[in-house]
Amino acid sequence: MQASAQRLADEVLFERALDVDASGEVPEPNLDLMRDAGLYGLWAPADVGGCGFDELERLPVLEALASGCLTTAFVWAQHGGGSANAARTPPGSALHEQWAAALATGERRSGVAFAHVLRPEPCLFAERSGDGWLLRGLAPFVTGWGHIDAVLVAAHDADRLVWMLIPAIEARTLTSHRLRLAAVDSSVTVELRFDGHAVGDEQVIEVVRYDDWLAVYRQGLRTNGALMLGVASRALTLLGPSPLDAEVDAARVALHAADVDDMAECRAQVGYVGIRATSALVSSVGGRAITIGHHAQRLAREALFLLVQGQTADIRAGHLRRLGATEPGR
Fold first, then answer.
1. In degrees to the nearest 10, what's the CA dihedral of 257, 262, 265, 271?
2. How do beta strands 150-157 and 110-113 pair?
3. Which of 107, 140, 181, 220: disulfide with 185, CB 3.0–4.6 Å?
4. Is 146 helix (H, G, I), strand (E, B) or coil?
């Protein structure tokens, strides 16, 4: 699977990456190629049609695809949350029957709406109502809108999170506003507004204490680091041999081996070498690197995006320390 992903990245995605970056939307054929290669099954077990991979087996595939076209890879990677959660719902349940196999095979695609739950102030709330819930508030960052069939949503209910998998269909009570991003803008990332949007109990995956979810989330911080390693690796391939090759290799080894307590520092180091690798490429190319048709500026912008994507307070502190800065207000 890794070899297949790397060939796809080198022979197709990288060749299209500048066009995708400028087009405003990921082309459907890019996503179809990933479906046909079985890549949408990376997060699902074999019994629903997936690959049955664990986290460490997924990382090289994520890195390979990000080295080709981060925008395409990022839209695809959002599929993991919905696919994995649909697969673990009870067989025979409405969610399982509707989504588990369809998402595992890539017949249907999913996205996620839960980055907001890491914010200090909640912005999306679930209110119990009859045989379901009403959602009110904002999900500020939802990627792949228009390309996804379902979205995994988390909303606050006091000290709990209500997790649900709902159709990605706009309605009077569910509307989107597109965000313009400095990098991966063609991912079609939107802000979703929920105005008393009704969700039935049959669409709810689980209701879990926030602290319990956060403990699990901290264990999954490795994944976003693989995307930065892909961008950094492509920059170094274009740059040619340098001491940065060994630094990226060391950061990769440390990230793969890290336990949960080391994860933030490893992610910070990956971010640091990613910024340096892409900056080195820009510097080596010179003035041409900042023309819109050159990969160097694209990779540098993508590295900046990944510096803050999936960032926690501990990762941010590690970035700032390495960059010789301090936390704002300190």
1. 30
2. parallel
3. 181
4. coil
C-alpha torsion sign, points 258, 141, 146, 91: positive
Q: How confident is residue 3, by pLDDT bands cut at 50, 70 and 90?
A: very high
Per-position b or e across 34-72, b if 16+ CB within 10 A of its CB: bbebbbbbbbbbeebbbbebeeeebbbbbbbbbbbbbbb
User: What pLDDT digit, counting tens, does each position of 228-247 carry?
Assistant: 999 999 999 999 999 999 99
Residues of the chain with pLDDT > 90: what percent?
A: 92
Closest CA to 27 of 181, 146, 189, 149: 146
Residue 147, amino acid: H
Q: What is the pLDDT of residue 198?
A: 98
The amino acid occupying position 235 is A
Are 157 and 250 found together in one domain? no
Name the percent of the chain lying above pLDDT 70.
Answer: 99
| Cα 165 to Cα 31: distance, rounded to the nearest angstrom | 21
State the pLDDT at residue 328.
65
Is the CB of residue 138 less than 8 Å from the CB of residue 116? yes
State the average pLDDT for the chain. 95
Check whether residue 161 and residue 198 sit in a common domain.
yes
Question: Could you give the C-alpha distances from 129 to 133, 170, 203, in angstroms and in order?
Answer: 5, 21, 14
pLDDT digits (tens, 9 = 90+) for 201-214: 999 999 999 999 98
Asked if 69 and 14 sit in the same domain, the reply is yes
Q: Which domain covers residue 272, as residue numbers? A: 219-322
